[in-house]
Design goal:
Elements lengths: L12 H7 L4 H15 L18 E7 L13 H5 L30 E4 L4 E4 L3 H4 L5 E8 L5 H10 L9 H9 L9 E5 L24 E2 L18 H21 L4 H23 L7 H6 L5 H17 L5 E6 L11 H25 L6 E6 L3 E7 L3 E5 L3 E6 L7 E3 L1 E2 L6 E3 L2 E2 H11 L9 E3 L2 E3 L11 H4 L1
Parallel strand pairs: 1-7, 1-8, 4-12, 4-15, 5-6, 5-7
Antiparallel strand pairs: 2-3, 4-11, 8-11, 9-10, 13-14, 16-17
């Protein structure tokens, strides 16, 4: 029989007010713990959106390092015509990460072809995604503010160049919750063991309670390590241990009411206990047919790793997980400062078939209508060369695309200039991208607020607009 943990008496006036105040301190803590118990991050019921959504969940395919838009989705004939020359003076002064703005323009060796009923341009590096373009809206006019990977990856995840703000997945979790209380609402996976730039900060909660942060699953045979009970420990015994641990944590939490990480830990223990019944089935790819596994490229060495993650993503969203984020090329592997031909050939080969398989699988199962798929990196690449055969970072103009979730496919939105350096038409900043994603999920970026330091904080820092062309064409 476990005894009730001893709770020390208050040592300071602040502790006294936090823990007494006519009971308000304990009431607040009980409320927070109750919220964590039923919240989205702990697998609780979904919240009511601000308006009718067109998407219920999202799969964000993050190509870390910055894929070259002018070699994938945005052909520039003038680039090849002027290859070897410096950037025309009409483009003005250019600031690049490596400081090679006056380097010769680098030819694109790609073969281009129009695909689908709308004639969307896609290069020969992406033959499988090219077959899905009638379900895809290609956005050629994206732009951001950061020059380096750290600030740019941070902005693409949090709308800010500086760390400390909640990630997009955390805002979605906070606003909508999950439809399955036995699974996390926000899941993150990556294709290799290298560290994503900024690490867990990319799926963290910033100033919001830690209970809304993403939960990372591992690639491999055991995506959820240490989930099952130790050998010889029954569910009843595990429940008893968790109850005692919870009482200890709650006792400590009453003395440190501002430490939301502890509340998240309490909720995570409860979620882990519930996950023991459902999570193993959710990530068991052995239940899929050979045809489905082949669709994702799991029968090929180059595509098997990311194919498993894409297939797992489909299984998670169909079971109520709200936000799934996949990192391809984790560790800035798409960062082709040199040898872009070898770099992008390898990474496109590893990613193309699994992503196309995901779109096709979602569509044939009737899930694409309610699942928003987003593809892109933190920035694009420059038309100017670097180190002779590579391209530098380019945040002033790059391509992303969206499919499903109410997005009208078979269209190309926006444009960059004749060399692909800057977005010039229907420009879509990262703030606009986040505002659009939230809108499609039924969340108004101005109504979704969290009180912090006496002021209402919003996910896009009061900027960004929903891009209606994505749904109207």
């Amino acid at each position: 029989m476990f005894s009730t943990p001893h709770i020390e008496t208050p040592r300071t006036r602040r502790e006294f007010l936090e823990r007494s105040g006519l009971g308000f301190g304990s009431v607040a803590l009980a409320s927070l713990l109750a919220q964590a118990e039923s919240s989205s991050a702990a697998g609780g019921s979904a919240s009511v959106p601000h308006h009718k959504p067109t998407a219920k969940n999202i799969i964000f395919l993050f190509m870390e390092g910055g894929p070259s838009h002018i070699d994938l989705f945005d052909p520039k004939p003038l680039l090849n015509k002027l290859a070897g020359q410096t950037l025309p003076d009409s483009f003005g002064e250019i600031l690049t990460a490596a400081g090679e703005s006056r380097s010769p323009l680098l030819i694109s060796k790609r073969k281009w072809k129009q695909h689908g009923e709308a004639g969307t341009w896609v290069s020969d590096w992406l033959p499988e995604i090219a077959n899905c373009v009638d379900d895809i809206a290609v956005i050629r006019s994206c732009w951001a503010d950061g020059l380096n990977h750290s600030s740019s990856v941070c902005q693409m995840n949090t709308c800010s160049l500086i760390g400390g703000r909640p990630s997009l997945g955390s805002w979605v979790t906070y606003g909508l919750g999950s439809e399955n209380r036995n699974l996390p609402s926000f899941v993150v996976m990556q294709d290799n063991r290298s560290s994503v730039v900024n690490g867990p900060r990319n799926w963290g909660t910033g100033f919001m309670p830690a209970v809304y942060q993403g939960i990372r699953l591992q690639e491999g045979k055991q995506p959820i390590p240490n989930l099952n009970n130790p050998e010889g420990v029954t569910d009843a015994r595990q429940r008893e241990k968790l109850s005692y641990l919870k009482s200890l944590n709650q006792g400590y939490a009453r003395q440190h009411a501002r430490q939301t990480e502890l509340d998240a830990r309490i909720a995570s223990y409860e979620l882990a206990f519930r996950m023991q019944a459902e999570a193993p089935e959710a990530v068991d790819l052995g239940q899929e047919t050979a045809a489905t596994r082949k669709l994702y490229g799991m029968d090929q060495q180059e595509t098997s790793s990311f194919g498993r993650l894409c297939l797992m993503s489909r299984r998670l969203v169909e079971r109520g997980v709200r936000f799934v984020q996949l990192y391809h090329g984790a560790g800035s592997k798409w960062d082709a400062h040199s040898g872009i031909e070898k770099n992008h050939t390898q990474h496109c080969k590893a990613m193309d078939l699994p992503v196309a398989g995901l779109i096709q699988d979602l569509k044939q199962r009737g899930l694409l209508d309610e699942t928003l798929v987003v593809w892109g990196g933190e920035f694009g690449r420059t038309p100017m060369s670097e180190k002779g055969d590579g391209r530098d970072h380019n945040p002033t103009g790059f391509t992303m695309w969206m499919a499903g979730g109410g997005v009208k496919g078979g269209q190309t939105i926006g444009a960059t200039d004749e060399l692909g350096l800057r977005a010039i038409e229907d420009r879509m900043h990262v703030h606009d991208l986040h505002a659009t994603i939230l809108h499609l999920l039924g969340l108004d970026r101005m109504k979704l607020t969290y009180e912090y330091n006496g002021r209402p904080e919003r996910p896009t820092v009061n900027e960004g607009e929903f891009q209606t062309k994505l749904v109207t064409g």
